[in-house]
Design goal:
Blueprint (H helix, E strand, L loop, with lengths): L1 H15 L20 H4 L4 E6 L6 H17 L5 E6 L4 H13 L4 E4 L8 H9 L4 E4 L9 E5 L1 H16 L7 E6 L5 H14 L5 E6 L5 H15 L4 E6 L2 H13 L15 H9 L5 E3 L2 H16 L10 E3 L7 E6 L2 E3 L5 H5 L6 H4 L5 H7 L3
Parallel strand pairs: 1-2, 1-3, 3-4, 4-5, 5-11, 6-7, 6-8
Antiparallel strand pairs: 9-12, 10-11
Length: 369
C-alpha cells in the first residue's frame, strides 16, 4: 500500500492544497515548544493519537500517511509514538498523560470526545508540548487544526440525496442518521445537511448515533422502519459509510426492494463497493493525503519551534479558542460515475480491490476494469 499512498499524497495534495493557501494566521515563535526541541533538530518525537478503529480510514490511511510525511520532513530521524483510543475518551486522556511522560515534542490528537480532551490538551500545553487537533476540533488551548470543511460535507450529502430522490423528494419520509454527539464534526455534518434538506423533504425520524457504530445505526433504522412503515421511507441520510452499511442491512432485512438512496462518507472500500452494486447512492471522498500532510507539517514545525504561517489557509474558532490556525481541505461527492477519477486515480484503491468477487459484473457494467 506504501507505493499507492505515495502516489495519493502527491496527486491529491497537488489539487486540494491549491485552495487559496493565503498565509493569514499566527504561529509559534522559536523557543515556544519543548525546551529541547531546537537542539533535537530532526530527531524529534511526535505523538499521534487516533480515536477509534471501527472506521477503516484511521488505521489504513491516516496513520501511515502521517507517519510517512513526518519521516519525509525529518529525513527519517523523527519518531512517531502511536496510540488508538478505540472510542474511549478516558483511555485517550490516559494516552495524553503517557505522551507527556514520554516527553514528545508535539502531539497530533484526533479526539474521541472534543470536550473531554480539553483538560489533557491543557496539561500538554503546560508541559510545553504544542497540540495539533486532527480531523476533529478538540477543545482546550490547541495550537493548530486541520480537517475538511465539515459543514460542506453535510451539504454535499444533502444535495446528493435530493438529486437521487428527484421528483419523489416529498412523496414519503426520509430518515436522518447523524453521527455521535461527542464528535463536533457530526454537528457540522448535520447542520450542513439540514441547510440543504429542510423544507425540501419530510424528515420522519432523526437520530444521533452513539459512537458512530454501524450496529447502533442498524437498530435505529429498524426502529424507524417500524415507526414510519417501510413503504413510507424514500431515502436515508447517513453521515458515514460505516453506518450506511448497518442501515442497508436493516433495509434489506425489512424486505425493501429496490433500496431507497442512502448517503455516506469516507469512501471506505465497502462503501465504494456498495455504490458499485447500487446499494448505496454516494459517499463523500475526503482526500486524506493533504489532511495528513498538513497535520504532519504543522506538528513538525511546532515541535521545532518554527512558524506555521505558510502552511495554514484560514482560522477557525472552537468553543474554547478563537482564531486557531487551520488548514481545511475540500471534499468530493463520490458516486458510481466518478469512482475511476477519484479513489482509483488517486491510488486509494485499485480496480482489482473494488471489483473483487461478487462486484465484478457490476464493475464491468460501469466500465471499471
Amino acid at each position: 500500500m506504501n507505493t499507492r499512498m505515495r502516489r495519493a499524497a502527491v496527486a491529491v495534495a497537488a489539487g486540494a492544497m491549491a485552495v487559496s493557501l493565503a498565509a493569514c494566521g499566527s504561529a509559534k515563535e522559536a523557543g515556544d515548544g519543548p525546551k529541547d526541541s531546537a537542539a533535537a533538530g530532526d530527531a524529534i518525537k511526535i505523538g499521534l493519537l487516533l480515536p477509534e478503529n471501527q472506521t477503516a480510514r484511521y488505521e489504513k490511511f491516516d496513520k501511515p500517511l502521517i507517519e510517512k510525511k513526518i519521516a519525509d520532513l525529518t529525513g527519517g530521524k523523527a519518531e512517531v509514538v502511536y496510540a488508538n483510543a478505540k472510542q474511549d475518551a478516558t483511555t485517550q486522556n490516559s494516552q495524553v498523560e503517557t505522551m507527556i511522560t514520554n516527553k514528545v515534542n508535539a502531539l497530533i490528537i484526533d479526539a474521541v470526545d472534543a470536550k473531554a480532551i480539553a483538560g489533557s490538551v491543557k496539561k500538554a500545553k503546560d508541559a510545553g508540548i504544542p497540540v495539533v487537533a486532527y480531523d476533529r476540533l478538540a477543545e482546550g488551548p490547541i495550537d493548530a487544526y486541520t480537517s475538511f470543511d465539515n459543514e460542506e460535507v453535510g451539504k454535499v450529502q444533502g444535495k446528493a440525496l435530493l438529486e437521487a430522490l428527484g421528483d419523489k423528494a416529498k412523496d414519503g419520509q426520509i430518515v436522518m442518521m447523524n453521527g455521535s454527539v461527542t464528535d463536533p464534526n457530526a454537528a457540522l455534518f448535520k447542520k450542513g445537511a439540514h441547510s440543504v434538506l429542510d423544507g425540501k423533504v419530510n424528515i420522519g425520524k432523526e437520530y444521533d448515533t452513539k459512537e458512530w457504530k454501524p450496529e447502533n445505526a442498524n437498530t435505529n433504522m429498524a426502529g424507524a422502519l417500524s415507526a414510519l412503515g417501510k413503504d413510507k421511507v424514500v431515502g436515508v441520510y447517513s453521515a458515514n459509510d460505516g453506518m450506511a452499511g448497518g442501515i442497508i442491512t436493516a433495509l434489506k432485512a425489512a424486505g425493501l426492494s429496490p433500496l431507497p438512496p442512502v448517503t455516506g462518507q469516507d469512501a471506505e472500500l465497502a462503501g465504494v463497493q456498495r455504490i458499485v452494486s447500487g446499494e448505496q447512492f454516494m459517499s463523500v471522498y475526503k482526500p486524506y493525503a493533504p489532511e495528513a500532510a498538513a497535520a504532519a507539517e504543522m506538528a513538525v514545525a511546532l515541535a521545532k519551534g518554527e512558524k506555521i504561517d505558510g502552511i495554514i489557509n484560514q482560522k477557525v474558532d472552537s468553543p474554547t479558542s478563537k482564531g486557531v490556525p487551520s488548514v481545511l481541505i475540500p471534499v468530493v461527492s463520490l458516486t458510481k460515475d466518478n469512482i475511476k477519477d477519484t479513489v482509483v486515480k488517486d491510488g486509494v484503491y485499485t480496480v482489482e480491490e473494488i471489483c473483487a468477487d461478487k462486484y465484478a459484473a457490476a464493475c464491468a457494467t460501469l466500465g471499471l476494469k
